[in-house]
Design a protein that fits this description.
The chain is 43% helix and 10% strand. The chain has 287 residues and is an alpha+beta fold. It folds into two domains: 85 residues; 170 residues, 2-Layer Sandwich (Muramoyl-pentapeptide Carboxypeptidase, domain 2). The protein is rod-shaped, with a radius of gyration of 43 Å.
């Protein structure tokens, strides 16, 4: 492209030189009109010299301008396509940004999570840092992250004031503990993996790893612990009416997007940015 530019500049320069030489010859060989020389006074040699054609000079100028203009357009087009070729191609799944693809919907309008992005309907979660965990029971067996623990204790106190006993059944679990809970109980009950996953997540895929999830029972009706019948207890009714005030929500309601069995006892804390991102970013990245 640099050679093309040089070519056009050379043609233009040569044209200027040709025009200058033509003007010099004309001035040297032809008298000025102001002198009004008679035809007889003009030397024969000069009278026989043909005049330079003005029309031919105009055609030459038009040719040069046309070639130069065409070259400029060609260079502009070439630069445009060269710039386009150097731009990085957009990739599917690039962030944040990034073009959003609508998640598939079920019959109820709930976003479905792609099956290839989870294990038996459960999403992956990392273990909470141990130094962020706080015990919420006297025997220190059940722990939650500090922010969740504080809110749960306040919620349990408020429920007790209303005559309802919220029992904490399970909180934070390590991956190793979840491994035993999933595979050993699965073997004892002679369940296949899909059946076991309806009520227990595989290791590495449990909300309990986060330190924000807790299983809650009714202290007055322990027979309903970890069963669908918990929805008929005073504790569940109280949670439905008041849990949101303390930033707790039901993880797996009926017909949930993950396809997990209904678990009225399983609640999670979403009262700060870390807990909110932990659960909702995990879901959004799977869609």
């Amino acid at each position: 492209m640099e050679s093309m530019s040089c070519l056009y500049m050379t043609i233009f320069w040569l044209t200027i030189r040709f025009e200058c030489r033509s003007r010099a010859l004309k001035k040297a060989n032809w008298p000025d009109k102001s002198e009004k020389l008679a035809g007889a006074e003009i030397p024969v040699a000069l009278r026989d010299l043909p005049r330079e054609s003005t029309t031919s000079r105009w055609w030459l100028w038009l040719l040069v301008v046309g070639i130069t203009g065409f070259g400029a357009i060609a260079i502009t087009i070439a630069l445009f396509f060269l710039n386009r070729a150097n731009q990085p191609l957009a990739t599917s799944g690039g962030s944040s940004s990034s073009s959003a693809v609508a998640a598939p919907q079920d019959v109820n309008g709930t976003s479905k999570i792609a099956s290839e992005d989870n294990v038996l309907g459960h999403l992956p979660y990392q273990e909470a840092p141990v130094d962020e965990l706080v015990a919420i029971t006297a025997d220190r067996r059940i722990r939650l992250r500090q922010s969740a623990a504080q809110k749960f204790i306040l919620m349990a106190d408020a429920a007790r004031a209303d005559g309802v006993i919220l029992s904490s059944l399970s909180g934070y679990r390590t991956v190793a503990e979840q491994d035993s809970l999933f595979f050993e109980v699965k073997a004892q009950r002679q369940q296949n993996a899909a059946k076991r996953a309806e009520v227990s997540a595989p290791p590495g895929y449990s909300e309990h790893h986060t330190g924000y999830a807790i299983d809650i029972g009714d202290g007055k009706t322990p027979a309903t612990n970890l069963s669908v019948n918990f929805e008929n207890t005073a504790a569940f009714r109280w949670l439905q009416e008041n849990a949101a005030r303390y930033s707790f929500e039901l993880s797996f309601p009926r017909d949930n997007a993950q396809g997990i069995s209904y678990e009225p006892w399983h609640w999670r804390f979403v009262g700060d940015i870390d807990s909110l991102e932990t659960f909702y970013r995990a879901q959004n990245t799977q869609k």
